[in-house]
Amino acid sequence: MSDSLATVLLAMLAGSLRVSTPFLFVSIGECLTEKSGRINLGNEGVLVLGAMVAYATSYETGSPWIGVLAAAFAGLLLGALHGAVCSLARVNDVAMGIAIMLAGTGIAFFFGKPYIQPSAPLLPGIPFGWWSGSSQVQNALLVCPLFLLGIAAAIGLHWCFNATRVGLRIRIVGDSQDAALALGLPIDRIRFLATACGSALAGIGGAFLSLYYPGSWNEGLSSGQGLMAVALVVFARWNPIYCIYASLLFGAAGALGPSLQTVGITWGYYLFYAAPYIVTLVVLIITARGGRSLAGMPGQLSIGR
Amino acid sequence: MPSDPRSFPMMSRRALVQGGAALAATAGLGGTAQAAKDTVIGFIYVGPKDDYGYNQAHAEAAAMMKKMPGLKIVEEERVPETDAVSKTMESMIKLDGATLLFPTSFGYFDPYMLKMAAKYNDIQFRHCGGLWQKDKNPMNTGSYFGYIGMGQYLNGIAAGHTTKSKKIAFVAAKPIPQVLINVNSFALGAKSVDPSIVTSVIFTGEWSMPVKEAEATNSLIDQGNDVITCHVDGPKVIMETAERRGIHACGYHVNQAKLAPKAYLTGAEWNWITVYKSFVTDMKEGKPIPNFTRGGLAEGFVKMSPYGPGLSEAGRKNVDAVKAEMMKGGYAVFKGPLKDNKGNVVVPAGKALAETAIELESTNYLIEGVNGSIG
Q: In this complex, do B208 and A273 lie within 8 Å of one another by their Cβ atoms?
């Protein structure tokens, strides 16, 4: 029994390291965008487009790292489109985000057709499990450099929001348009940049999907992870550090279903597959009690106004 | 993410494009080069036709048909199992002049294909899956399917000869009879080599969910399973993960050796061209196309992938020998006495179920030696 428990825990650790990275990138990207007072539901489309562009570029150039850069650039462009259109008067950012989502997946499917069959070079993992004789541990601790980059980006973003002038300006624009106007801040430009940079991060999340885990390009690759990551931002209370925890938790909860089945706990796997969502629901219910708006939510978000 | 077709009460994308082409043709801007006597056949797939899986198996056969004289093949992929498929069928009939349609996905049959069949009763519809009933369904419809369980039995023999840990694995989508027959056949094939081999199965709950499939594969490998096969729509991720982790794999749907050159042992593949060719021959000879078509290895509906380098000489000989028996027809994989993994007798002693046995169509158990549960 303790053996099985160790297996499940190890699988959850491995799962949280493997599965969490796309959630992490999309959620900190979305966090940046929402902190400036805008929602970008299009990050699901950016994730898929990033995955396709990264895979295609890696295949064509032979270098997965150029693929990652290309994915970030593709995300930047799509985010810039969203940011630019939303700067126009009376454009609803939620509706526009859905349009961006459909456009991103559509473009990715259209240009991605020729890249489903070939195999592109993938990103190497960093073997943190070298000290262990067990191949399970070694495999669990084979960490993608993008995961570390994501953690660093989240910490950097947190520092930026709390300790830098740029971060302060983003927060002002996101929290109170009146205050931003009074200070003479270029609201549209700040939101535009925050949206574009946020989507570039989401694009890197896509690169992780196609170039590391599961590590191939096909049309079902994302299966809604970008949308879930947008929800994670609410769960993480618009705090980049909490985004790390939330992503790890989602990854671990996602690994619970398959690993329980391998150790012989085979009943109710649909229920275990729902674990990440149940956790989200419970946390939201506990933290969002009656009447007041969600703690930490930027004041200018269209869903909160 | 398929958009909800009900929110766009216009024409499908395809209808629009083709309408445009037809308009261009009548305006003298360009013509379709199609000879008037060509038979037009429409294929409809639920997923991408290069998914290394279920849809690709059909698309490969369609590609072979394209080379046959006197035929014009029209295809549409990624058609959701909604009203969208009705629109696709209608545009294939009206704009392309299709007289024979193959909607290949399970959910197309009822109500979409049946409704279209009632509306266009001079058009022939043949559905891949197996639901056609003589008294209930129109005579211009029908169904065809292959018994691929035997292929999974042969996969199991190959796996049984290859595994060192005596633990092998199956990544399955949903616990429906067709999937369970495959799991049970795979396990029985392995047990025919060594009765102590245990097969672990994981159900992902979805036909196509790459991240979950990768997670399941990794979990199974971590548990010491060293040969894996699957029944999901696109086995690409599972094969690639097996190759990367250095274990062996048996394919399903189509030949996946290219994805896992070292890992691949053999695979159970569809060979739909047999079915489609025979339908076309019937049509050309003016005979009615059969309404209910079934076949397995012996009939050429199913075939095995060429052996990969990981399969030993003894393994190859064993698979070859059993396959030769199967090719004679009437081979039974499920021979009593057989118990399920809860200890209940599912096939009594002295009874043998051939692949055509109607009892198998309601399989709702995993046999003894399978680690997993359908609940």
A: no
Per-residue model confidence as pLDDT tens digits over B165-209: 999 999 999 898 899 999 999 999 999 999 999 999 999 988 888
In angstroms, the CA A10 to CA B86 distance is 48
Pairing of strands B143-146, B167-172: unpaired
Residue corresponding to tokens 């329980």: A260
Interface test with B, best of A208, A213, A266, A271 (most B CBs within 10 A): A266
Among candidate residues B182, B194, B173, the one with its CA nearest the CA of residue B155: B182
Q: DSSP string spanning chain A?
A: -HHHHHHHHHHHHHHHHHHHHHHHHHHHHHHHHHHTT---TTHHHHHHHHHHHHHHHHHHHS-HHHHHHHHHHHHHHHHHHHHHHHHSTT--HHHHHHHHHHHHHHHHHHHHGGGSSS-PPPPPPEETTTT-S-HHHHHHTEE-HHHHHHHHHHHHHHHHHHHSHHHHHHHHHHH-HHHHHHHT--HHHHHHHHHHHHHHHHHHHHHHHHHTSS-S--TTSSTTHHHHHHHHHHHTTT-HHHHHHHHHHHHHHHHHHHHHHHTT--TTHHHHHTHHHHHHHHHHHHH--TTSPPTT--TT-TTT-
Looking only at Cα atoms, what is the longest distance across chain A?
64
Name the nearest CA neighbour of A260 among B224, B231, B220, B109.
B220
Residue of A3, A256, A262 for testing the chain B interface, max B β-carbons within 10 Å: A262
Q: What does the pLDDT look like over B25-84, one tens digit per residue?
A: 444 443 444 445 689 999 999 988 888 999 999 999 999 999 999 999 999 998 988 999
Under a CB-based contact definition with an 8 Å cutoff, are residues B245 and B269 in contact?
A: no
The torsion angle over the Cα atoms of residues B121, B127, B131 and B137, rounded to 10 degrees, is 0
Residue B312 contacts by C-beta under 8 Å, 6 or more apart in sequence? B161, B162
Task: Quote the tokens at residue B180.
Answer: 């369970």
- Are the beta carbons of B66 and B73 closer than 8 angstroms? yes
Max Cα separation, chain B?
A: 72
E strand or H helix that includes residue B38? none
Q: Minimal Cα distance from B220: which residue of A?
A: A262
Q: How far is CA B174 from the centre of its chain?
A: 14
**Domains of chain A (ranges, CATH numbers):** 2-124+143-288 (1.10.3470)
Q: Which residues contact B161 (CB under 8 A, 6 or more apart)?
A: B193, B311, B312, B314, B315, B318
Q: Are B293 and B275 in contact (CB under 8 A)?
A: yes
CB contact under 8 A, B205 and A269: yes
pTM as predicted: 0.84
Residues of A in contact with B211 (CB under 8 A): 19, 209, 213-214, 221, 223, 225, 254
**For residue B6, is pLDDT > 50?**
no
Q: Which residues, 6+ apart, have CB-to-CB distance to A185 below 8 Å?
A: A169, A172, A173
